[in-house]
Amino acid sequence: MAKRVVILGGGVAGISAAVQAVQRGWQPVVLERTPHLGGRARSFFDKSLGCILDNGQHALSASYNETLSLLKTLNATDLIRWQRGLDILYRFEGQRTFRMKSMPLPAPLHFLLPLLLKAPLTRPDRRFLWHFGKKLPFSRGEDLRDLTVSQWLAQAGNAPFLQNLLWEPLTLATLNTPLHQASAELLFTVLQQAFLSAHSRSGLGIPAAGLSGLFGDPATAFLAEKNAIIRLSTAAKALIGDSGQVKGIKTRSGEEIFGDAVISTLPHHALAAVLGESPVAGAVSLNLDQLRDSPILTIYLKLSAPLPGPFPAALVASPLQWLFESSGETANLYAGVISDAREFLGQSRESILNMVVREIRRFYGLNLTPMLAGFKLIAEKRATILQTPATNRLRPGVKTPLRGFFLAGDWVHTGLPATIESAVLSGRLAVEALADL
Ligand SMILES: Cc1cc2nc3c(=O)[nH]c(=O)nc-3n(C[C@H](O)[C@H](O)[C@H](O)COP(=O)(O)OP(=O)(O)OC[C@H]3O[C@@H](n4cnc5c(N)ncnc54)[C@H](O)[C@@H]3O)c2cc1C
Q: Mutate which of 215, 419, 429 to test ligand 1's pocket (most atoms within 8 Å of Cβ)?
């Protein structure tokens, strides 16, 4: 008989689990607290700027196999603008630039050579990079388990300029965690996937339509057609079950929904609340209270004239870490991104705008104020978990000690940083674990 599986949360992980479930001929029942699917990867119409905005700028990597496969199923691959290989413009104070374009060469030469030949590096930087790049393919992630990125680089004899040019932008963009806290093992995984494989897998993909056009909307249509049940504006409150066997979920409005199994794709804090209300969870301890979140601030700028490209641009040693150009229909719309934005959360709009105006003057030599037609700040306080060696060890797998209860979500242990790719993979792994029962 077809399994009925209750999926808590309709973000990317919930969508992935539901798609995997219907592909096995099961019936998923997706419970989502908000009125839409998509979770932390969604878009909305912003009245003040008069256009569709994402809840924060996202970039995908051509190495995201799981995500690409999901988007193919949802018929949404055309909604991404892909680079052919990595192509980033580094901007330095005073308008100097360096365009990092990977070369069609075997890894790791495809990204080492452009850096060694064209980047404004000192001799010690080049020497470090050459030796580090040569050793990288023979390194093992597990040897880095207890190290932060700073410790790893210090052990390898890092040169300071490379820290600003390479390690800081890369670590913040992929782990949303500062170098002195970030897990070296996870950064190694990023390097392995994006830089130690083919040149074609090193490029970025920028969503060309809003994120909801990529995930939430096509998933809603696909799942509805396959007779999945999607319950929006429905929040899970507590697990139902007995003797350690989970049988369903009680919602906050008191409704009871039963299934053969429950897959939680909730963020860790929402899962902790549900487990706290669930007698069946008993003494199950996932140490969720030890996980911490890290914010991302996106600053949308609508301008009356274009900024000099190309994009994305990494502003070296600037608090305004990245600038992206919107690839949607709105002209001259840009997104400034600040990862690990803890120090900005308490600041006023004015003070953040002043910082942006100052940085645009420093890096582009332009006065932003007369060009500014609109400005929108989006602070996602719980953008991702803080990804340290300690928190990486705490991430639970998809199986739990409770029978019929599985976990997914970007933050569970997938071996990947907490990203869209991890969320999609976790959904598949949870469904596979359930199928194995
Ligand atoms: C600003 C920003 C920028 C980012 N940039 C990138 C990027 O460039 N590249 C990248 O790969 N990743 C990026 N990420 C991370 C990426 O968005 C997440 O990893 C991914 O969306 C997480 O998906 P998820 O399904 O695991 O979690 P979520 O999207 O959080 O989904 C969980 C869902 O559960 C719902 N929910 C919560 N409580 C309940 C309840 N009690 N009952 C029912 N439903 C509930 C929530 O509403 C939510 O929809 C970024 C994130 C942010 C915020």
A: 419
